[in-house]
Known about the structure:
The chain is of the alpha/beta class. Helices cover 33% and strands 18% of the residues. It has helices at 5-15, 58-62, 64-69, 85-97, 117-122, 151-165, 203-214, 288-293, 305-313, 316-345, and strands at residues 37-42, 74-77, 104-106, 127-131, 134-138, 170-175, 219-224, 235-240, 243-248, 257-264, 267-274.
Amino acid sequence: MKQxxxxxxxxxxxxxxxxxxxxxxxTKFTTDSxxxxxxxxxxxxxxxxxxxxGYPCNTLLANLDWINQSKANALFCLGDMxxxxxxxxxxxxxxFFNKLQIPLYNAVGNHDLSAEVYxxxxxxxxxxxxxxxxxxxxxxxxxxxxxxxxxxxxxxxEVLNIVNQQTINNVFIYAHRTLWAKHFKExxxxxxxxxxxxxxxxxxxxxxPLLNQIxxxxxxxxxxxxxxxxxxxxxxxxxxxxxxxxxTAIRGFKRDAVLLVNVNQKGVTFKTQSLTKQNxxxxxxxxxxxxxxxxxxESFNYRLIPxxxxxxxxxxxxxxxxxxxxxxxxxxxxxxxxxxxxxxxI
Length: 346
């Protein structure tokens, strides 16, 4: 944990804004004297599994100029920034980090973590910081397989303590997994192929009670970045019990878009921004009803068949299965011959 409660309170009281330096491009999160600011948020910056280049998603790189010129104060990735964190970091530095002019933060996903590679290069995977009268909390939903416990749960309790001690307008929470999805009946079946814990998580038992205390004094916005490849939109909007849950991610598809969040003394507003010049509706359109009615499949690109064949043939799992099956066939044939010879002797 990078900041204690007392340090954050001190910084807040005397300079009004704590500027956390991005571990990716060493740029600070700063605001001007108006106390208004904005940030861009989305997830899955590597795109989809077909992107074997080692570089970020094509739609993201194609919009770097727009991101830099957007006047946003920061960019948040909701996990799965990398496809292969062990090998992709140099390519990301060259094409993305070094060219990005605003600070970047990441709530790690499963693809971001391999041994301690991410931590050795970019530091902590969970922390919080303050901007004006808002708290930004970044969680690691991979650490305990979808549970927020131990030091991370203590971190959330610290946020609650700050909310009880100070005037905090908004608490923004960033995470990869949609930990909240399985705890609301109306969301059943909406996130079939995203990253979830097989045995569930402690959202309802431990996290939600703390959120319910925080929301008594502050607005809560929870952003998640794992929505699955067949999602009908890059956005999912779900306001529930005075907490706003939002899921958003890009996949290297026509539907790719990011969310621009504007914060001022009047409140928080959202603007959907297409990365492929598509016409988008406002965020509230992409609600539960929209997702229940829409089932969108990306059209199959037959030109990718050679690529898919190559990926299968060169996959070690293919050969594991092949030799396992071959061994079973050989053993069965051997047993059959032995049985036949035995019966023949009889």
